[in-house]
Amino acid sequence: MLTGDKQAVTFNRVNYSVDGIHILKNITESFREAAITTLVGPSGAGKTTLLKLCNGLLSPDSGEIYIRDKIISSYEPAHLRRLVGIALQSAPMINGSVMKNLALPLELQGKQLAETDAKKLLKDVGLEEEFLHRSIKDLSGGQRQKISIARTLVNHPQILLLDEITSSLDRISQLEIEELIVKINQKYKTTIIWITHNLQQALSVGHYTWVMMNGEVMETGKSDLLRSPVNEKVQLFVKGVVE
User: Across the chain, what does the average pLDDT equal?
Assistant: First the structure.
């Protein structure tokens, strides 16, 4: 059960454009701390752009973004990326072992990852210790995605951004990743912001949902809103998809 109403990420009249195209339009909403919030909407709605604004990969044209009540521009970039982790659909890896991939975030900081810590990370994502010295090339898509998430957890992020991380996985692997993210949220109280095109997934794993269209947040609330949205455009979007 979620308690309190602290905000992890707050957008205040945020706008973002590329080559004169208005990608995000006057976004004013907040992501609740320690909750799983799913972002849904048609392609081109601005979901990935919004996610990248949350950890400073992009900067807004206007408006303010706050991370835990502190304006995002006041964070040193490397610290911000540790505080706000991101895992992508493609799960990009470097050639070599699982251990080499898990150690990368700390190596970039001039530190080393202890093998005991690496084994704990594998356990956290539901993989056996024996995976530590396997080659990345020998892993399935679901296993690579778990390693990608484990690597993101190396820095103990308080906020975790997920962009379509299960869209290319089979149903079993998808369910495993869903269970993993819910476990991370419950165990570490990590704030999760998850883009998904799967509305059933948004319903099953999300505490809250934002529906985005054409660069705007059309409707927000508890994820059950997808069963009976108020906004007419959102009603048309979910019609026939959510039972």
Answer: 93
DSSP character for 136?
G
The pLDDT of residue 238 is above 90: yes
Residues 6+ apart with CB under 8 A from 46: 16, 23, 24, 212, 214, 215, 216
Q: How many domains does the chain have?
A: 1
CATH of the domain at 68: 3.40.50.300
Q: Indicate whether 5 pLDDT > 80.
A: no
The percentage of the chain sitting over the pLDDT mark of 90, rounded to a whole number, equals 87
| Structural domain for 34, as ranges | 7-91+157-238
Secondary structure E strands in 33-178: 36-40, 62-67, 70-71, 84-88, 159-163
pLDDT of 3 > 50? The answer is: no
Residue 34 counted as domain residue: yes
Lowest mean pLDDT among 2-6, 43-47, 73-77: 2-6
Residue located via tokens 């991380």: 165
Residue burial 49-79, b: 16+ Cβ < 10 Å; e: rest: bbbbbbbbbbebeebebbbeeeebeebeeee
Question: Is 207 part of a structural domain of the chain?
Answer: yes
C-alpha to C-alpha distances, 67 to 28, 35, 57, 108, nearest whole angstrom: 14, 15, 14, 23
Residue 1 has a pLDDT of 42
Does some domain include residue 211?
yes
The answer as to whether 143 is a domain residue is: no
Q: Within 13 Å and on the Cβ side, how many CA atoms surround 199?
A: 19
How many residues are given for the chain?
A: 243
